[in-house]
Design a protein that fits this description.
elongated; alpha/beta; 12 strands; 5-stranded antiparallel sheet; 10 helices
Length: 267
């Protein structure tokens, strides 16, 4: 079970690093998370609790079941609602809740986590920072009782859930809230949706004219794309040197691609 906020407000802490690309990147994270979970041998199905009108159909196309967030009362209420929906049709189902921002998720690592979790009534996996939680499970006939958000590791432990202290499951611990988290996830190796989306956000400065504040960048496939002064000004830069890695925001596609913002890359 994966909860997903409306994309317009998802991953707000990434806004400073990725700007207007944040909603698209949040969707890419969710798509890779769900795709990885569906590919795991221990997963019977994946339920996504969301009201987002764009994300729902995209995730359904992967094979996820979409459950509307009828409580609309926050993350944990959404998860409790999702668990009830699952067990309404399969009363004896074990359930697990997982973050939607695990773009590096590897199915074999998730398999190890779920196999370990199956030995306990409730179990959880702490995030890479050791503060939050990336996965919480409940055995058949056991209430999930989620308490995600902030220092949830301590809350889940205090609630009686067993902490799984596995090694070698970094892809399940690596949620993405900041630019540093994204860099780490990219180093681990993200799924195809995040890889493709993040590639469209990155380029290398190629030319720059300080008099006109215009120039060009090279996309990672070697394609040169010009930018004008408004795009440079939007990025808040004072100078740009050829060879610097930059983050870009664009409009259009193919021959009509236009750069609307260029700034230094922070992830």
């Amino acid at each position: 079970m994966v909860p997903l906020k409306p994309l317009a407000v998802a991953k707000s802490r990434l806004a400073a690093a990725v700007g207007a690309s944040r909603p698209g990147l949040a969707l890419a994270f969710a798509l890779d998370t769900v795709a990885g979970a569906l590919a795991c041998a221990a997963v019977a199905d994946v339920v996504v609790v969301t009201d987002d009108p764009a994300a729902g159909p995209e995730l359904a196309r992967l094979g996820a079941r979409i459950v509307p967030d009828h409580p609309a009362a926050g993350l944990n209420a959404a998860l409790a609602h999702g668990a009830r929906e699952i067990r309404a049709g399969r009363p004896r189902a074990a359930v697990a809740a997982m973050n939607a921002d695990l773009p590096a998720l590897r199915p074999p690592e998730l398999l190890r986590v779920l196999e370990t979790a199956s030995a306990f009534p409730r179990a959880f996996l702490a995030d890479a920072a050791g503060i939050g939680t990336t996965l919480l499970s409940a055995a058949p006939d056991v209430e999930l009782a989620p308490s995600f958000g902030g220092p949830s590791r301590a809350r889940h432990s205090a609630s009686g859930a067993v902490e799984m202290t596995l090694v070698g499951v970094d892809s399940i611990r690596r949620d993405v809230d900041t630019a540093a988290d994204l860099r780490t996830a990219l180093t681990l190796g993200v799924g195809r949706h995040t890889a493709r989306y993040s590639a469209h956000m990155q380029a290398t400065a190629y030319t720059y004219d300080s008099q006109t504040r215009s120039g060009s960048v090279l996309l990672d496939d070697g394609t040169p794309v010009p930018f004008e002064a408004p795009a440079f000004d939007a990025g808040g830069l004072r100078l740009l040197r050829p060879g610097q890695r930059v983050r870009i925001e664009t409009d259009g596609e193919g021959p009509g691609l236009r750069i609307t913002l260029v700034t230094l890359q922070t992830f």
